[in-house]
Amino acid sequence: MTELRGDGVPAHEYRWALPSVLLGDAREGGRVRRSTRDWIVDTLMFLAACLITYLSLVELDKKPEPDPLMALEQVTGALACVAVWLRRRWPVALSVTTALLSSYLELVGGACVVALFTVAVHRPLKISGPVALLNFLTLVPFVALRPEDDDERAWAVALGVTVVLMVFAWGIVVRARRQLVWSLRQRADSAAEQAKQLERERIAREMHDVLAHRISILSLHAGALEFRPDAPPAEIARVAGAIRTSAHQALQDLREVIGVLRHAGPEADVVPDRPQPTLADLPALVEECRQAGMDVRLDLRAGDVPDGQGRNLYRIVQEALTNARKHAGDVPVSVVVAGERGEELSVEVRNPLGARPVRPSGARLPGAGAGLIGLTERAELAGGRLEHGATPEGEFVVRAWLPWPLETTREDVP
Question: Is residue 37 located within the same domain as residue 177?
């Protein structure tokens, strides 16, 4: 049997039916399973209908009514109060029925008020509006048939219009508040989901930047062994050691990134960052590339660069060197980093286009083609810009410019 929530919504659909649950827009005639709060509210509504019916009965006893009419009033009033328990399942039907009965009978007034309030809360204005209008129209036959003099008729019209207006307005206010609550929850959920998505994208960029560099170096060493199987044992041992070191570093980087992912669960308030490189680590990166056989020249003309911008520069150079290894082969690569505080930081990575590198068995280093796109996004997020492409001189150049403000705060560090 399908479990239903308080407004007739299946439990497995509760998350997706959140607007209906908050606003009470359940299907007409749907089976209802009340929560504890629903039972409390429905009990109070039933008692309110009974109280209004009792007060109306006290006033009715003061009038000389025929016994059959009095008996009909009492039976109908009691049944209407009991029918209040159906207000969640058939709110519109209950309100229309009690409104029609109230066009002549007085003791259904309590149930009629509760039913109108339920419709105003649980149904949109295009439905609750006509129901409220029907309640106004039923005042006409009641005033024409029941009160005995003009004063009583005027009092009945004033009281009826006031009660209908107040109850309907109260229901509209309650519904508007529920809509506001649902809207705020939607915004909070959307903001949380957006934050998770941004964090996933950040971690994905981090994995690409780190692992693409490590694995490309490892593939370069392995390709050298495959290309020169007759190399001296000492050379083979050196390359094998470099492969082992690169593989160990790649696994270590992957372990650190996965550690961040494990800490990024829904129960974590703060996602820890793995240790990040800065511009001071750039010479070590260049030296690592040289040990892998690349001809890299570094010209570093920037001083105490903020950690955030230094990290961006490091990642730009790292990706540019990785692309040079993949696509340009054994050609010289020049890296120039310059800038002054209060102006701009610039980085330029330049290499001849040359011929496509020869790989053993025709193999090529794989690439997703997203590296330069990611670098462009990184530079733009840091408030800078990035350009890349071939030059008329037959070189491929990656240039980036990043802001370097006079004063650096923690907010400047991404």
Answer: yes
